[in-house]
Amino acid sequence: RKEVEQDPGPFNVPEGATVAFNCTYSNSASQSFFWYRQDCRKEPKLLMSVYSSGNEDGRFTAQLNRASQYISLLIRDSKLSDSATYLCVVNNDMRFGAGTRLTVKP
Amino acid sequence: DGGITQSPKYLFRKEGQNVTLSCEQNLNHDAMYWYRQDPGQGLRLIYYSQIVNDFQKGDIAEGYSVSREKKESFPLTVTSAQKNPTAFYLCASSTNLDGYYGYTFGSGTRLTVV
Q1: What is the β-pairing status of strands B31-37 and B43-51?
Q2: Is the Cα torsion angle A96, B19, B85, B107 positive or negative in sign?
């Protein structure tokens, strides 16, 4: 079983839509969780950390479900510029999810 | 500003040659990592290092070698034993191997075998 698993998508959504991605992890000892964004042919960049109580950053909301061992990322009011691949990673692992590809269309 | 610098950005290698990819960080991070990414695929861990003069194999270490002689530097050598080296190579670092505060990436080296 992979340590971190994501739905690869692709997710194709219209502008303004709300879209959510999940990421499951296997290491119950993981303490910190992150979502990264990777644009085509670029390096991954930290989008947001995921806190136990959930957290928001503008149109982005991250949630943690320890009981079911998954994290989620919700994007509201999608913009064309949100088109990218979204990767999750947990600490103590060094391994990233394969990424979920999002395309936002006009 | 602190960060990770990878060089070169693009590298072309002839079959049978060894090439070395540079990775330097000035973040004072203890842990450093090398990942390989193929088109449309996720990141695969090649090697990682927790401290100077110590490094461990990741999931796809065959055909690669590394060194960690300085805290700031973690070069990756792609040897002729790596049969399919064309890929995007990413170096990353974190405060320590725990990765509690996340990972910072360099801008990558795109290697092509010609």
Answers
A1: antiparallel
A2: positive
User: Structure tokens of A20?
Assistant: 């959510």
* Chain segment A45-73, per-residue pLDDT in tens: 999 999 888 999 999 999 999 999 999 99
CA dihedral angle for residue A30, residue A27, residue B97, residue A101, rounded to 10 degrees: -90
Q: Write the residue in B58, B101, B106 that is nearest to A43 by C-beta.
A: B106
Give me the residue from B88, B98, B103 closest to A89, CB to CB: B103
Question: Chain B contacts of A46, Cβ < 8 Å?
Answer: 102-104
In the DSSP assignment, the letter for residue A105 is E
Looking up tokens 């971190």 gives A4
- Beta carbons of B59 and A95 less than 8 Å apart: yes
Q: Residues B65-101: pLDDT tens digits?
A: 999 999 999 999 999 989 899 999 999 999 988 888 8
Using CA atoms, how far apart are residues A61 and B20, in angstroms rounded to an integer?
A: 40
Name every chain B residue with its beta carbon within 8 A of the beta carbon of A43. Answer: 90, 105-108
- Which stretches in chain A have pLDDT values below 70? 1-2
Per-residue pLDDT tens over the stretch B33-57? 999 999 989 999 999 999 999 999 9
